[in-house]
Structure formats: C-alpha cells, structure tokens
Amino acid sequence: SFEFSNIFSPIANDFEERKNRIGEKKRGREMEFNEEYHLKERPEWIANLFGKIDSYCLTNIRTGIQRTYLKTYIRYAWSGKMFGYIMIREEALRIYLKLKYSELENPPVFIRDYSKIARGTWTELLFNDEEEYLQNEMTILDVTYGLIDKSFKRITKKPKLAREIAENPEVEPITKLEPIVAIKNLKVNLTVENNGYVTLELKIPKSQLNKTLDRILG
Predict the structure, then answer these.
(1) Is residue 178 part of a domain?
(2) Per residue in 42-98, pLDDT tens?
C-alpha cells in the first residue's frame, strides 16, 4: 500500500520499523507475533510458499540464520545483518532482498525494482497469482532461492549494506510525529508499472505548487 506520509514527513519513513520494534501491548503484555499470526486466514498456497521459503532460509544457506517475527514482516538475518524479509498481505506474499535490480539478468515479471520506494537497495519478489505460481512452482522457487543466496552473499561481502540489528533494542515510545501538511484540492493518480516502476501524478492548485515541491524534494 502507498502512504502519503512517506512523501511529506521524513519521520514517517522510520515509523513502520519502530512500530515493529516497540510491539503491540494488550492488557499489559506484549502481543506475540509468530507464524500463526502472519498466516491467519491466508490462502493455502501462500502458506505452503512461505513454508518452503522459510525452510530454505533456515536450513540451506548457513547455520545460524536468525528469523524474527515482527508485527508487519518476518525478518531473516545472519550475524546481526538482515539480508531479506517477507511480508504477507491478504492474497499476496512479498519478499524483499538486498539486491540491485539493475544487476539482475533478465528478471521475470514477478521481480521488481523497489529501491526507489524503500530506503537502501532492495529488490521485491511479488507472488499474487496462485494459478501462475502453481503452474511454474519449481522454476519460480529455483529463481527465488538463487536470489536469496545472492542477497545473503552480498551482505556478507559488504556488511555495511545491512544495518546492525540489536538483540533487545531499547526504543523510546513515539510521542510526537512531524505534522503532515494538508494540501487542499489534492488529486493523486498512482500507477504501478510491470517494469518495476511507479508513476505518481499529482493535480494541485497552481498556488500550492512551490510549497508541495519543497515538501517532496526537500
């Protein structure tokens, strides 16, 4: 999903990650995030796909891979360095890897460049078509496993690409966020292209052009 707070508020870029680390408290106890939480009411094919990818990450790459269930995604790291994470949403499973899309050779259509949307170098693998996946399961999994391996090798050779992950990070509660600027009569058209790019069209009053550009570009 696309959130306009990511355009107008730099602080909002860190909000999702901080929200995960803080956790959600219920009746004085932290809510537990696990496989059941992420797969609840998800289609069987997505649950099976996750199981295969999860098993590969934990048993086929290197001993000591760390899996962490967070509120909005499942993180995979080695020696405190994250090389990928999985997000499961309704009818889709997404994998994000520390790879440069421009360096991939003839990537299939389910692989997209995500670096312009997320911070850092990320490539997205999107699985949202059950029929296509089941018809090409072995080929898709072979490609996916190969990219996971590349992402892992990349962060081990260039550890600065991945931030250190604290075992028990102490995070102060978010008490104040930078206010999001309200723009009157704003119309937005967002188009996701098959080539991995997103086209964003804004229609605003001419009098607010400079203010809007300052917020987006500055």
Answers:
(1) no
(2) 999 999 999 999 999 999 999 999 999 999 999 999 999 999 999 999 899 999 999
Predicted TM-score (pTM) of the model is: 0.63
DSSP per-residue string spanning 73-93: -EEEEETTEEEEEEEEETTEE
What is the full DSSP assignment across 173-201? Answer: -----PPPPP-TT-EEEEEE-TTS-EEEE
* Contact in structure between 155 and 120 (CB atoms under 8 Å): no
Check: CB of residue 178 under 8 Å from CB of residue 10. Answer: yes
The answer to whether 182 and 142 are in contact (CB under 8 A) is no
Position 169 in a domain: no
> Domain check: are 127 and 195 in the same one?
no
What is the token pair recorded at 56? 């590969």
